[in-house]
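Subject: complex prediction, re-run

Hi both,

The earlier run crashed halfway through, so I resubmitted it with identical inputs.
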Amino acid sequence: MNEQTGEVSNQAIWQALEDVKDPEIPVVSVVEMGIVRDVNVVGTTVQVTITPTFSGCPALHVMREQIAARVRALGVASVIVDTILYPPWSSDWITESARHKLKGFGLAPPLKHGGNVPVTFYEPVACPYCDSENTMVKNTFGSTLCRAIYYCDDCRQPFEQFKAV
Amino acid sequence: MPELSVNGPTTLEPDIQQAMTEKLLAMGDDELILAHRNSEWCGHAPILEEDIAFANIAQDELGHAGLWYGLLQALDGSDPDQLVFFRDADAFRNARMLELPNGDWAFSMLRQYLFDSYEMVTLEALAGSSFRPLADAAEKARREEIYHLRHTQAWVRRLGLGTDESRRRMHAALDQLWPHSGQLFAPLTEEERLVHATISPAPEEQARRWREIVIPFLQTCDLQVDEQMKDQPAGRDVHTEHLLGLVAELQQVARTDPEASW
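This time it finished cleanly. Structure:
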């Protein structure tokens, strides 16, 4: 924070938001997931713009509260968290570091689709435990809106995949 | 329900604004009522995977209801929670086929397929709307609907081409649902204004596109549509006796203590 003006730098806010995790996937941050789209510092007010992964995501309001609380902890009095729909969130935006963490968490990362989701439906999904592609989808719906359920025929483990969207 | 920040202006010419609020209320109510029916399968579906699937689909449709009610809020300041929990059943504007009781698995799955395919052609058209906030929300919902259609198509095919019993149940479901499906495309009272302003597509054109997709698909599932069967041409202000019980259940907790904070 700048002692004279009371302003916090844009960079400091982005860095602080790395501490805010996706409530449904506590190993990755809202920044790595591509949920935070923009940070604006206007005088002593900070505006953070986010976009939902799925429109029915129940974790969205938790993320908004946690983002606001984390920015306030930097000494910012006024925080606005805006939710936008455009451009619609894409799983292609999940960073490489986050893909690695998803896998470590037991969630197969989403396949890249370049805007055409159905291309991923016929691609093999690698098991996050043994890397085998000898897997099959058991359910395109899972424990949360963003997950599908698979089974690995090699290590015989069920696992979840973060859906491409 | 979080307030949305929308791109572009949220005010319209007064006559178009009236038509738009009517349209958004109908769209939101369709999603809400179907989501409620879907949620009734939770704990009752034939297999665990399908229990999970219908619960997910319910949550998605509820999310889409939130998009349309959120736009409505941006336009006229109406409160989504008030609309959902404190509005009387006769003020709901959902299509009648969505409020019908779940029936058997075939009925619910076929209804979901018919609605998903309706939603897909609608959202594809609305993604090109001249009203930017509506176009943005439509594109968001469209991407999620891809998963619904993939699921419901697979089940309609499986049940239509399956055993004698599954086929019998699907035929019965189609006979019951098809006459109601036309109401999805019945123009609202002011809808012409939206079509004229290129905000939403012409309903008859949408109906044609939908039939071109749905009828051939159903034929590949050994399901023949009886074109002669048509619903009563009543508007969305007319409901079956089933809506009252649904809305009573949906609102029961909220109305028990209207001042409670959640």
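Chain B has ten helices and no strands.

- K.
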